[in-house]
Design a protein that fits this description.
It is a single chain. The protein has 11 helices and 6 strands. Helices cover 49% and strands 12% of the residues. By secondary structure, it is α/β, with parallel strands linked by helices. Helix 1 packs across helix 2 and helix 1 packs across helix 4.
């Protein structure tokens, strides 16, 4: 099968998928569907520029020359791209199992020393904190640094005697995390990081639970350092 045939087959599936999600008839133009759906579908939003360019290529392919030869024959990289978009639309990667991992969590009555040792041993830049098993906040390196700066004026203070409840109060940004449910798309996580950045805020972690509730057991975590992994899933 020629690349042009493979391309048109995949393009038709994508176009049908967009039309179905928007509940539009066959008269809707492809570019209009991409523009409209990119406002609500994270995958279409991420691939919106590629989809527009693929739409241009489709138009070039379907207009044949007089001798019956197509004007444009897609290369292999183009085929890989459109198939990747098709797979993302029909089988989008979910947060779990992609980011399933054991999430270490400490009670706010535990000591700062214990948290620092845990963060050092596992190279953590942040650590979820709980109170009686219920999540209450996210301890970060910045928060620890702010607490140390404030405590440096004291003659004596003990890392092993200071509870984390005291340290977490020094957090500059108390809304540096959010929760998502386990079957949410990976693309949604990327959009969350982008939304925070667009609003001049920092999202340090996305915490994953069964239904996206803070009262549930943590099943995984996505941090800023995981963004490259998410981007690789887009390629």
């Amino acid at each position: 099968m020629k690349n042009s045939e493979l391309f048109l087959e995949s393009f038709a599936k994508i176009e049908q998928k967009l039309r179905k999600e928007l509940q539009l008839d066959t008269s809707a133009r492809f570019y209009e569907m991409v523009r409209e759906l990119s406002r609500k579908n994270k995958i279409v939003y991420e691939y919106r520029d590629d989809l527009r360019q693929l739409g241009d290529l489709r138009n070039a392919i379907v207009h044949e020359r007089a001798d019956g030869m197509v004007i444009a024959e897609p290369n292999d990289a183009c085929i890989q791209l459109i198939i990747r978009i098709e797979n993302a639309l029909f089988n989008p990667p979910k947060l779990l199992p992609a980011f399933k991992k054991e999430v270490f969590q400490l009670d706010v009555n535990e000591s700062v020393g214990k948290a620092l040792r845990l963060m050092y041993e596992h190279s953590f830049s942040q650590l979820p904190l709980s109170k009686k098993g219920v999540f209450v906040g996210l301890l970060t390196n910045d928060t620890v640094s702010r607490w140390l700066g404030a405590s440096s004026q004291e003659d004596i203070f003990s890392l092993n005697d200071t509870p984390l409840a005291k340290v977490i109060s020094f957090a500059e940004n108390k809304n540096n995390y959010c929760f998502l449910k386990k079957d949410e798309m990976v693309f949604t996580a990327l959009a969350k990081f982008q939304d925070y950045e667009n609003n001049g805020k920092i999202l340090d972690s996305i915490l994953i639970t069964a239904n996206g509730k803070s009262t549930e057991k943590l099943l995984g975590i996505v941090t800023i350092s995981d963004i490259p992994k998410i981007l690789r899933m887009l390629k």
